[in-house]
Structure formats: C-alpha cells, structure tokens
Design brief:
Elements (H helix, E strand, L loop, with lengths): L19 H7 L4 H4 L9 H24 L19 E5 L5 H6 L4 E2 L5 E2 L13 E5 L3 H7 L8 E2 L5 H10 L6 E6 L3 H17 L3 E3 L2 E2 L11 H4 L2 H8 L5 E2 L13 E2 L8 H15 L1 E5 L11 H14 L4 H15 L4 E5 L4 H7 L7 H13 L12 H6 L7 H11 L6 E5 L7 H10 L3 E2 L1 H4 L12 H13 L3 E4 L4 H12 L4 E2 L4 H9 L5 H11 L26 E2 L7
Helix pairs in contact: 7-11, 9-11, 12-19, 13-14, 16-17, 16-22, 21-22
Membrane topology: Single-pass type II membrane protein
Keywords: Carbohydrate metabolism, Fucose metabolism, Glycoprotein, Glycosyltransferase, Membrane, Signal-anchor, Transferase, Transmembrane, Transmembrane helix
GO molecular function: glycosyltransferase activity
C-alpha cells in the first residue's frame, strides 16, 4: 500500500522530452552549463556542440532508467507450463498505471510546502495478468477485464466545502462518539457514516469504538484492525479525529442514542442532534448500520469514498501478512477469489438450507428455533421462496455450475475467502470436484504467520479482503458487506472484474433440466455481461456509492484525477 512519505520524490519518467527550462533546472548546480541558456553571447558552433552533447547525455540517462524496471514491474509472474495448465500469463500493464505512479508522489502547493496527496493513501492492487495460451473462446471471455470507459477517481470538493473545512477540521468543543457493531465490513460501513455525521454536525470524531462481537467472540479494537495515524492524517482536512475524549468532556453519565430511523438525511441529522451536541458537547451514537441515507450531496458522497478507499487502511501487521499471501497467489499466475458464505451463522441468519443433506439442515433448523434472534431472513417465506428470490447464498454445487457456465477453466486457481464452512471439507467437495485448485489462507500462510490473528475474526476477514482485492476476478456467492465493498473498491482502483451472481434471474434455469449445457452457459453469460463495463450507481435505497463509485467518485474528465 502506498503511503505519503512527507518528502518530494522526483520521478525520472514524468517528462521524457525535457524542455530547455527543465534542463536548466536539472543542471542548475553547474554554472557553466546553466550559462548556455542565459543571454550571454556564446560561439554558435560551441553552443551547438554542447547542446548536442547534453541531449545525447539526457537520452542515454532516460534509456538507462527505462532499462531498470520499477519496483512494481520488477516482480514477474511465473509462466505456468503447458504440461500443467493451458494458461500462460504475465502482468498486464494496468490502465491505472497513472494511479500507481501518482501514488508514489507527494504534492506541493504554490508556497512550496509539502501537502498530503490522496493518491498517496490508496491501496494499489497488483497488476492484472494478461492470460494467453490454449484457451477456448469462453475462457478468453472469462479472463477479459472490463473497459474503464475512461472513468478515473475524482474527489474534488466544492469551494464551499473547502471553506467550511478550515473551521470544522479544528473543532474542539463538539465531539461525536460512535459504537460500531457487527463484522469487519459492517463496522467499516458504520465508521464511514460516523465520519459523514461528524462532518454534518461540525464535530470532532472520537476514534470509533468497535463493539465486542458476540457471534465470533472478537474483542478487536480500532488500532488492532486499522492504521490510526493514517486514518487521522487522511481526514485531517475534512474532520478532526481524536483518540479519546478530552478530560473537559468526560461526564459521569452520557446519553447513548440508539433509535435512529433508516435512510435519514443530513438535514434530519443536523435538526435532531446539533442543538443537543452544542449544549452537552458530546454525542454518543450506536447502531448506525444503514441509518444514513445512501443519497447524499456530492461533497459528502466523495467524502464517503475518501474514507472507504483511502482513510480506512488496515493496520501494518494485517497489511503485511495479507500482502504476502496475495503476492504468493499472484506470482503463480491469474487467480479468482471466491467469497463463499458457507459458515454456520450465515445459514442460520438467512434461514436457508445448506445443500449438504437433511443431517446438516436439521442442525441449522434446531439453532433457528432455539435462538430465533439470529434469524434475519424473511420468516414469512419458505426456503424455496427465499432461494428463488436470491436471498440464499450459492452453495458449492451451485457455484461450480455458475463458474463452469461462465467459462472458468478447470485448471484455474481459486482463492477461497470466508470463514470455516459449515460441514468442513464436505461443503467444498462439489466445487473441488470440478475445480480442484482451491486455496485458503491457511494453505498459503507459512509457520506462525496467522498466529497473531487466530482470535480475531476481523483480522482474518481483513486478510481475505486484501487477497481478494488483488485477484484478477472476484465473485461473491452472496450479497453482503464484504462483497459490496470489494466490488466498489476494485472498480475504484481500475475496474477490475467482479462478477455478482444474478441469483434471482438465473436460479430458475438451474432447475430447468430441458435446457442443454450449451444453452445454459449462453444464458448465464448473458445475465452477467454487466461485469464488462462500469455500472453507474442508481439512486435507490440500497445502492451505496461505496459499491458503485461511478459517477459521484469517478469521472471521465477534469482535474479531480489523482
């Protein structure tokens, strides 16, 4: 992950055809050479000779720089032998090479003071692979990456937003405290909204509190999962973030607000809490998940993307291990990440059947009856109705059929993200029978690498996130926070291919035995062709800019590109 280093990095590739002015600056340490560009008279023949020498020297220098690969290109992907796989690959120069370059640079303003650049805060993925070899037409189409249609990140805020920032970013009287619950990506959503609400209320944000997760018995705190200093630094122009409440604002009893309607607007937030916050100095909010509207003013939508894709960087220990595992997958060639939601709690919460047989389904049904508080699926629907409505995760058999219909090669390599599947290895058998090259983080990790995180489901989920983020193709078996977050993050950083199974439309065809395999494959591919182009966000209740960054956080033209 690139980070702002606080110094200017001069990159030799920024101008391959130096102007006389740039040459003057380049050689400013040498007065005799600089004098060539002054107004003093010089022998014409001597000037031509020296100028020819300088241009030749510059060309030689550029050639040498280009001969040595950059750090990004110095890691080559191994060629998979045709005897073991029909696929050969090498890194594809990403359409976002400018992002990778810009992420190495620091900004500088007109006063020559170094300023943090957004481009230096984003997690940059490894390049996608150019897949070639003895591929069928369907396999070639499967590996094909989407066309970006010229969309690039653009987070430029309005003049009014920037003017207000001068005061809000220094706020010392009003403080917002937020308690974030749920799994990792559910907590991330609430942290993002916490920043937005702090901005709306013109308050300083106390580092969010991560509530102990009772389902996964996870007691991780914010610094265990996220890089605190990076979070503060990235947002310092938008919202003041502090590690704890100042002593002047510590009170014996604080009101905790938990009853917030869904989809509230900035106007509602300000009308409801601003007066109270002014009087008490502290506001504590809990249960923010999906409470803030998905449709916000442009500046706040861009701030959402800034928090999600830039500020919320994982802690260094998590990032280091996740990046190592991603590189081990990537170095062997192209890979697909599957986020399979096959854990016991998922089956319990959705009210769906496991596909493993009556013995396993009875265990899930018993938990649902004895602990109904965990059931979040629509209880007024039968299992079949829920499944055909797209409310159930795809099981391993259904995922195998989907992948085969989409043209995934049987020799393809698959990273399996997610927790331990209910039923263990039995749950993956239908998938492994068709696609045997299945890899989990436990298989990639070396001795002791995962040990520090074994008691933290959030950290393990973050590692899955990093490996999936770097994959050539990402496919979730179910909706959910991680699937939506990765879909949007991968789009934001280069429109890397993500395939969202269109379960509601495709599952009836799974049941139709009269359709030939060829016709079935054609139907499935046509249902998922949206993966081949950027999909603009529709202003609906559940369509978040984090999952669909086009067009609020990405644009085709303008100076907002970083």
């Amino acid at each position: 992950m690139a980070r702002s280093s606080g110094r200017i990095i001069k990159n030799p590739f920024m101008s391959l055809t130096p102007s006389p002015r740039s040459l003057t600056q380049l050689f400013s340490v040498s007065p005799p050479l600089t004098s060539l560009f002054s107004s003093k008279k010089t022998s014409p023949s001597l000037s031509i000779f020296i100028l020819s020498f300088l241009f030749s020297f510059t060309f030689l220098g550029i050639s040498i720089f280009r001969f040595f690969p950059s750090s990004q290109d110095s890691i080559h992907c191994s060629i998979i032998s045709p005897t073991t796989s029909p696929i050969s690959s090498h890194p594809l120069p990403s359409s976002y090479s400018q992002i990778i370059l810009t992420s190495l640079l620091s900004g500088i303003n007109s006063d020559n003071k170094i300023q943090p650049r957004i481009g230096g805060t984003a997690m940059v993925p490894l390049p996608v692979h150019l897949v070639s070899g003895n591929l069928s037409e369907e396999e070639t189409e499967f590996w094909k990456q989407p066309d970006s249609n010229g969309y690039r990140p653009c987070l430029d805020s309005t003049i009014g937003y920037r003017k207000r920032s001068a005061k809000i970013s220094k706020e010392k009287n009003r403080f917002l405290v937020v308690v974030a619950a749920g799994g990792l990506n559910q907590q991330k959503n609430q942290i993002i909204d916490a920043v937005i609400i702090a901005r709306i209320l013109e308050a300083a944000l106390v580092l969010p509190v991560l509530q102990v997760n009772m389902i996964w018995d996870d007691e991780s705190e914010f610094p265990d999962v996220f890089d605190v200093e990076h979070f503060k630094k990235t947002l310092r122009a938008d919202v003041r973030v502090v590690s704890s409440l100042p002593s002047s604002h510590l009170v014996a009893k604080q009101t905790i607000v938990t009853q917030i309607p869904y989809g509230v607007s900035p106007f509602w937030i300000r009308a409801k809490f601003f007066k109270q916050l002014n009087q008490e100095g502290v506001l504590v909010l809990k249960g923010l998940d999906s409470k803030l509207s998905k449709n916000l003013p442009s500046d706040l939508q861009k701030l959402r993307c800034k928090v999600a894709f830039h500020a919320l960087r994982f802690s260094k220990p998590i990032l280091q291990v996740g990046s190592k595992l991603a590189r081990r997958m990537w170095i062997e060639g192209p890979y697909i990440s599957l986020h399979l939601r096959l854990e016991k709690d998922v089956w319990v919460r959705t009210g769906c059947r496991t596909g493993l047989g009556p013995e396993y389904d009875q265990i899930i049904t018993h938990i649902q009856k004895t602990q109904p508080q965990y059931l979040t699926g629509r209880v007024n629907m039968s299992y079949s109705q829920r499944r055909l409505s797209g409310l159930c995760p795809l099981n391993a058999f259904e995922m195998a059929r989907l992948l085969k219909a989409l043209g995934a090669p049987q020799s393809g390599r698959f990273y399996i993200a997610g927790g331990e599947p209910f039923g263990g290895s039995k749950a993956l058998e239908p998938l492994a029978a068709v696609f045997p090259n299945l890899v989990r983080k436990e298989m990639l990790a070396r001795d002791g690498e995962l040990s520090p995180f074994l008691n933290s489901s959030s950290a393990l989920s973050a590692i899955d996130y990093i490996v999936s983020f770097n994959s050539d193709i990402f496919i979730p078996s179910h909706g959910g926070n991680m699937g939506r977050a990765l879909q949007g993050h991968r789009a934001y950083m280069g429109h890397r291919k993500s395939i969202r199974p269109n379960k509601r439309t495709m599952l009836p065809f799974f049941e139709d035995s009269s359709i030939s395999d060829e016709e079935f494959s054609s139907i499935i591919r046509s249902l998922h062709n949206k993966s081949m182009k950027p999909e603009p966000r529709k202003k609906q209740r559940d369509n978040d800019v984090i999952a669909y960054p086009v067009p609020e956080c990405m644009c085709r033209h303008g100076s907002g590109f970083f």
